[in-house]
Specification:
The complex is a heterodimer of chains A (754) and B (286).
Chain A (H helix, E strand, L loop, with lengths): L23 H6 L14 E7 L5 E7 L1 H5 L3 E5 L12 H10 L4 E2 L5 E7 L2 H9 L2 E6 L6 H5 L25 E9 L2 H6 L3 E9 L11 E6 L5 E5 L4 H12 L6 E5 L14 H12 L3 E4 L2 H7 L6 E9 L5 E11 L7 H8 L9 E8 L14 H19 L3 H8 L18 H10 L11 E10 L4 E9 L5 E5 L7 H13 L6 E5 L16 H28 L6 E4 L2 E4 L10 E2 H6 L1 H4 L3 E9 L5 E11 L6 E11 L6 H20 L30 E6 L21 H13 L5 E2 L3 H12 L2
Parallel strand pairs in A: 1-12, 8-27, 10-11, 14-15, 18-19, 25-26
Antiparallel strand pairs in A: 1-5, 2-4, 2-6, 3-5, 7-15, 8-13, 9-10, 9-12, 13-14, 16-24, 17-18, 17-23, 20-21, 21-22, 24-25
Helix pairs in contact in A: 7-8, 10-11, 11-19, 12-13, 14-15, 18-19
Chain B lengths: L1 E3 L4 H10 L4 E4 L5 H6 L7 E4 L9 E3 L3 E5 L4 H4 L3 H6 L1 H7 L5 H4 L4 H6 L7 H7 L3 E6 L2 E6 L4 E3 L2 E2 L6 E8 L5 E8 L10 E9 L5 E9 L6 E2 L1 H7 L6 H14 L10 H22 L4
Parallel strand pairs in B: 1-3, 2-3
Antiparallel strand pairs in B: 4-5, 5-10, 6-7, 6-10, 8-9, 11-12, 12-13, 13-14
The chains are: A alpha+beta (754), B alpha+beta (286).
Chain lengths: 754, 286
């Protein structure tokens, strides 16, 4: 198979149009099936017992009374999930996070689970499980966890990435460094230097649908799992490995997904549900409550970041440096590393250095959250960039334009950029009407830039042509943001048929080859590449069948606008054959017509955005209202522009919540104080203005249509854009996210008192 | 768990008084059902009072208004006479939860839930509202501020049910107002709140005032010094400054997930001032 992924600059018929979404009617009528909507005969209710302690040794668990309760069909602890990870440290962490083995490492850590005939019995059973804890000192703050006297979360962790191997264990799992040039020398050439420290609190993705699954393990060792996930193939892999099954014996079907944003990329409840079903011999449904989602799924890191940037009087940045500390929860990750990579990615810098420290704390394991780690780094850097522009007396947009990365720039994290969109988004912002909208008293404007890598990865697609000429597309990347619509558009484009002739489904793990999960904004980028490839393979067969029907050489048949067309002088009188006509004869010309594609989608184009935000701050209460918001982002090519705009708006909306009110609040006892939507304040509709969007299309050279991922970049600039706006409105630099009313009011009062 | 739906207040009182285990009154259920679902309460008896005659009615009486214990807050907003007489009480009731919740929740439930952050309570206290309590030993009428005694606790004895809330007729040139601070625009719980009820003379001088602060102490505070700061004056800058100061001083707030002590003190004063200005304007003051 010779698939050429290079950008071809073709004209589009379907791509770029806005047909109605294929999943819309079922979703608005309630017919769509989400994780908790699957049910089986004889199904039991699973529930999980969770540690009330932030850090505690588990001395003993007595499950005998729970087991004796009528209606209880299985009780499990870590003993029922034996360690089969065979030295794979990352898998062991996943196992330990699913069910604490020797220590509970955070408030909410699972320690046991039950399956019972109903929810009431299951709840009663949990109360009958006796866990003997030895409570240990805990630490939840990222800076405190780095102190020498901090309680050690894991005494087998020695900081990686140091020049000398440390002799003592530490909560810092890894030091990572990026950059080039000599920052010391660079700062020596600066006329102005801004140096500031920032903090951001931990936030949750806040997906509306809680984690839910139904597990059914048969006595023959095979199993089915229905689950709400961003990556059912990855869930299959992990569950099979943790339960000692062959992957092919476990069929995982993904449900519709009520939001994931990176948070549904890890298994938590699923291995537990499978272990319960295996022990009980019956299907088990496990649905997390909202309290459990907050306490025991995967929020993002809390951070503490120092930034130093220097510039010459003419506005050229001479050096930039940042130290970034990211909390990882109780298990190692790469969150600080990603933050250190993205921090200065928007700029063209001769001297740049970033250092990341990954820090263990007694909080739930950090998981991906939409462009994970980038928003916090952007908040710190873009706040400092704004300050520096102010000191230089330069317009913040002009200052950024002057220093923006461009094609050929060596990025702060290493690679040299191809064609990129940071400059064009800044120019678009400069010209945007929003920048001229009048501001009233107590109002302020801010803007900021953001970067995200975007990923590709392993992808597999089947395209099947029915005998009636309709086309079904089976994809393996879960549709979290409209990929069924965009992939249908892409297939329609290649085949030259109408969008309505297509139906895309997300296939289960037994029906399609392996697919990486929908993360890194890869869904449409990589599955569209595979869809184009699959469609081209199908076209090859369609041409062969047409050649057979005409009894001519296949080389004389071309595919044009949904039809086989015979070429050459000899065949000039042959009428073209539609896809439908060829499909109708397929039974006698060689059987079903299908196109398959298996590929690794390389060359995901990096993505940049610039946001503008206007806010009004009540100087007497510290309340902030976002009054105007504009997103400008490069999409490469917007396959379905309405979905792209939705992604832009969604990222901005989540960013507004994060910037202003969302935060994990821990008590001195290490327990989460606000495990619910009442006190974990995501924005409601009336908190948001209509978010304006502008799509730029700078083609990705590594995709036939120029597509780049669009899902994540939109959450990178908001923290900084809003912080810059609030700082301008309140007259004081805000350095701590979220900028909740008490924090803003305290900052205003402190400024007033000088 | 047993669910009953008595048709008379006497029957409800008898069932409540006679219950052996934990019992709960169900009107809108917007607190009770959430607490049951969360596993915080497991009542053995639930007494639904919505079918008791008269409890779903707002009556205009010679003295003013009688609001039945099962009247949803949304219905308060549809009563033109009540809205005209007590705009502050109605706006407070219409801030609870969401539109959907307002279709179920009641001001009596809000009062008996005994949260210091209850939205309708500071407005009722400022309005001088009274509660009609029916119990095994008969009926009594008490000031609403005497109902909650601590977070989650009330002064009601076993078997007692609040049947209605009484609001007087507003005197001429009088009006009330309620404001709360929440970090969002809706669907939230007051971080701090203020209810103010004012009566003016023809010259616009305040002759009577009641000021209540919510979410700043274990129960809603009736701030008498706040009233004193306003009485005998027009709403001049000095009076407002004094009002803000005494309200901030009267607070006994805590630091918690919703706000800090300093924040609550400061904003209590700001809200009292703003609510007083609204009430003053509504009463015709200029």
């Amino acid at each position: 198979m010779n698939f050429d992924p290079r950008f071809s600059g073709r004209k589009f018929a379907s791509v770029g149009t806005r047909p109605i979404r294929p999943d819309g009617v079922d979703k608005v009528t309630g017919r769509a099936r989400y994780g908790a909507d699957f049910n089986m005969a004889g199904q039991l209710v699973g529930r999980v017992l969770r540690s009330p302690h932030a850090h505690a040794k588990i001395r003993k668990i007595d499950t005998s009374k729970a087991e004796a309760l009528a209606g209880v069909k299985a009780v499990i602890t870590a003993k029922d999930l034996p360690d089969l990870t065979d030295g794979d440290a990352a898998m062991y962490d996943i196992l330990d996070n699913c069910m604490a083995r020797t220590k509970a490492l955070y408030d909410g850590h699972a320690v046991a689970a039950v399956a019972a005939i109903d929810a009431h019995t299951a709840r009663q059973a949990l109360k009958l499980i006796v866990v003997d804890y030895e409570v240990l000192p805990h630490v939840t703050d990222v800076d405190e966890a780095m102190q020498h006297h901090a309680p050690l979360i894991n005494d087998t962790v020695f900081t990686e990435g140091l020049e000398e191997k440390p002799v003592k264990p530490s909560n810092v799992t890894k030091r990572s460094q990026f950059g080039h040039g000599d920052v010391h020398q660079g700062f020596g050439h600066a006329d102005f230097i801004v140096e500031r420290s920032f903090k951001t609190e931990q936030t949750h993705q806040g997906y509306i649908e809680p984690h839910a699954c139904v597990a059914n393990v048969s006595s023959d060792g095979t199993a089915d799992l229905w689950v709400c996930t961003q990556g059912h193939f990855v869930y299959r892999q992990h569950c099979a490995q943790l339960l000692g099954m062959e992957a092919s014996k476990l069929r995982v079907t993904s449900s519709e997904i009520g939001g994931g944003f990176g948070g549904k990329t890890h298994v938590w409840a699923e291995p537990v549900a499978l272990a319960l079903s295996r022990k009980a011999g019956r299907p088990v449904k496990l649905v997390m409550t909202r309290d459990e989602v907050f306490r025991a799924s995967g929020p993002t890191s809390a951070t503490s970041i120092d930034v130093k940037i220097g510039a010459r009087k003419d506005g050229t940045i001479t050096a930039a440096e940042a130290t970034l500390r990211y909390s990882a929860g109780p298990y190692a990750g790469s969150w600080a590393e990603i933050g250190a990579m993205t921090a200065f990615a928007c700029y063209r810098l001769d001297n740049v250095k970033t250092v990341g420290f990954e820090v263990l704390v007694n909080r739930p394991k950090t998981a991906a959250y939409r462009a994970p780690s980038a928003p916090m780094a952007a908040f710190a850097v873009e706040s400092a960039v704004d300050e520096l522009a102010k000191e230089l007396g330069m317009d913040p947009v002009e200052f950024r334009i002057r220093n923006a990365a461009q094609e050929g720039t060596r990025s702060s994290y290493g690679p040299v950029y191809g064609p990129i969109g940071i400059g064009p988004t800044l120019e678009a912002v400069k010209a945007h009407a929003h920048m001229k909208a009048p501001l009233k008293v107590n109002q302020g404007r801010g803007m900021a830039c953001g970067f995200w890598f975007n990923f590709g990865g392993q992808t597999c697609v089947d395209l099947n042509i029915g005998m009636d000429g309709s086309v079904s597309l089976a994809v393996g990347t879960v549709d979290v943001g409209g990929s069924r619509a965009s992939l249908s558009l892409v297939a329609a484009e290649e085949l030259g048929i109408d969008y309505a002739q297509l139906k895309a489904v997300v296939a289960d793990t037994s029906s399609l080859g392996y697919n990486d999960m929908t993360d890194g904004s890869r869904g449409t980028f990589s599955s569209s590449m595979a869809t184009i490839s699959a469609a081209r393979n199908a076209i090859k067969i369609l041409r062969e069948r047409a050649a057979q029907m005409w009894d001519i050489a296949v080389d004389d048949v071309v595919w044009e606008q949904g039809h086989a067309v015979a070429k050459g002088e000899k065949h000039g009188n042959l009428g073209k054959l539609s896809l439908k006509e060829i499909a109708a004869k397929s039974g006698t010309t060689g059987g079903p017509i299908a196109g398959h594609s298996e590929l690794v989608a390389d060359g995901a184009g990096v993505s940049f955005a610039t946001h503008i935000c206007d806010v009004e701050v009540d100087p007497e209460t510290g309340a902030t209202r976002v009054i105007r918001y504009t997103v400008v982002q490069d999409a490469g090519k917007a396959v379905h522009p309405t979905y792209v705009e939705g992604q832009y708006q969604g990222g901005a909306a989540q960013g507004i919540g994060w910037a202003l009110n969302e935060e994990y609040i821990y008590g001195k006892d290490g327990r989460l104080q606000n495990a619910g939507f009442l006190d974990y304040r995501i924005p409601v509709c009336s908190d948001l203005p209509m978010i304006d969007t502008q799509i730029l299309e700078i083609p990705n050279p590594n995709h036939p249509y120029g597509v780049r991922g669009v899902g994540e970049t939109s959450i990178v600039p908001p923290l900084a854009a809003i912080a810059n706006a609030v700082s301008n409105a309140a007259g004081v630099r805000m350095t701590h996210i979220p900028m909740s009313p008490p924090r803003i009011l305290a900052a205003i009062e402190a400024e007033r008192e000088g | 768990m047993r669910y009953i739906r008595p048709l008379s207040i006497e029957d409800a009182v008898g069932q409540l008084a006679g219950s052996a285990g934990p019992a709960a009154i169900l009107a809108g259920g917007s607190d009770l059902l959430v607490r049951m679902k969360g596993g915080f309460v497991e009542p053995e008896l639930i007494i639904d009072i919505k079918s008791i005659a008269g409890l779903r009615d707002i009556r205009e009486t010679a003295e003013g208004f009688s609001i039945g214990a099962a009247v949803p807050c949304a219905v308060l907003g549809e009563n033109a006479a009540l809205k005209k007489a007590w705009p502050g009480v109605v706006e407070a009731a219409k801030l609870i939860g969401s539109k959907q919740v307002q279709g179920r929740c009641t001001i009596v439930g809000n009062l008996c839930n005994a949260s210091p952050a209850a939205d309708s309570v500071p407005a009722l206290v400022a309005a001088g509202a009274r509660a009609v309590v029916v119990g095994p030993s008969g009926k009594r009428t008490i000031a609403v501020e005497t109902v909650p005694t601590a977070p989650g606790r009330t002064s009601l004895a076993k078997g007692e049910i609040i049947e209605a809330i009484l609001l007087g007729s507003q005197a001429p040139r009088s009006a009330d107002a309620y404001l709360r601070f929440i970090p969002r625009t809706e669907m939230d719980i007051a971080v701090v709140s203020a209810g103010v009820n004012l009566t003016l003379d023809e010259a616009g001088v305040v002759t009577a005032a009641r000021v209540a602060i919510g979410a700043a102490a274990p129960t809603v505070l009736l701030v008498e010094e706040g009233a004193e700061a306003l009485i005998g004056r027009k709403l001049d800058e000095a009076a407002l400054e004094r009002l803000a100061k005494v309200c901030a001083g009267a607070c006994r707030p805590i630091d918690d997930k919703r706000g800090t002590i300093e924040f609550r003190r400061k904003v209590a004063g700001v809200l009292a001032t703003r609510a007083a200005q609204t009430a003053y304007a509504r009463a015709g003051g200029k």
